[in-house]
Amino acid sequence: MDPDEIVYNEFYHTLRNEYRRKYDLALSKCWNICVPAGNSLRGLPITDEFVDDHILKPHPEIPHHFTSIGEDNSCLYKFENTSLKLIEENESTKVNCQHKVGIVSIEKGYNKEFQIYVILVMEMPIHPKYISPNSRIEDEVKLNCSVVSYKDARGFLDQLSDQANTQFDKLKSTLKQIDLDDFNSSEELSSMLQDLTRRYWAIIMRKQSLCLQRDARFQKLLSTSLEVFIMHFMYDKIYYLLSRALLQEDMYLNKKLSQFFDAGITPDQLGADESLAISLPAAIVELATLDAREGPLEKSLCLRSTLDLIVAEVKAAIAEVQTKTENDEITVSSFVYSQSTDELIPLLIYVIVKSRPKRLVTDLHYIKNFLWSASPRDGLSDSLCTFEAAVGILFHLEVHDLPGRSRKVKTELPIGELFDVIARSDQDFTPLDRQIHQLATMLEKCTQN
Asked: Do 265 and 353 touch, CB atoms closer than 8 A?
């Protein structure tokens, strides 16, 4: 028998400690012990009657049927495949003779006489009179959700049992005692916090029902929620320390961004195809919120959504027009199919220049060292690598080394050229022309009103 599966169950723990005589008697007689899942016990007192009703012995006259060990033996049960069915009960307590409870797992052990006894882990108490309001469907832990912020994490953790929630006070106390001066590097601090997350993950996991313990969604949500909870609690301390340590790098990058911004650089000067040199407003607005995000997960999600918006805005432009650049070397449609880093980074650098995050170097270091829930499937690691590559290029890029702006790409457009774009046929449009045409149409409607 695997002790991790039931030893932390409230009923099983109470049975072994407070009702030891009944527990030993059940083992010696090889009676069946029915252990309700932990989340179904919320708000239920474990009494003598409750214990008696959950220890079943074979019926003396009816084969394959069982009765509880209470004095009146009023309830008759029968096993049907993977469930236990209530067959008959005393008229004074009759509720529903069709009541069935699923069997989650069957654990076997040997008593002192080396006889096999069985412990059945049940979905809920086997008699309907014990079904707690807290165990009903509407109060079950919601697993079809996502955790992307501290609010989400607390909302998920608050659904757990009271026993699990008491662990959060202990966790807070442990976090308060952490002195950052005791650590020599970010990696060392990160390793300690990861160990702390894993330890409390295991403690809280053992207090849940077997169904939840075995659910991959619950495992992932609990891991992410604990990580967000811990990093939210430690955010001010860690981020302040990192921002001080990386102050010079952030100041240097900010100076570079100001120079590029004042020079009015455009995506084509940074290496983007001139047909794709559109303004990317949605991505710029998204990245501008990075400074206000707290926690490595929130900041990482901001990076990913920024890249997603860059690709989405370019795809939207290409969806309207398919064309080639002047030199015919790179087709606009190639961006749609490859979306390579080489094509994306010039556009990303442009977005960084326009949004000018204040502590981008600190943010990237913070995410890299204190985000543990990222996986290859969610794209967070790839987003971080792309931003690191863009920042690396920015550090070595000088305004005076940039090529001149393409004559097709303008930050200001004379009225005559605007009319030329409006009059041009759709077949000659590039994504940049399409964006200018849309702006001109908006201006025309505004003047009409």
From this structure: yes
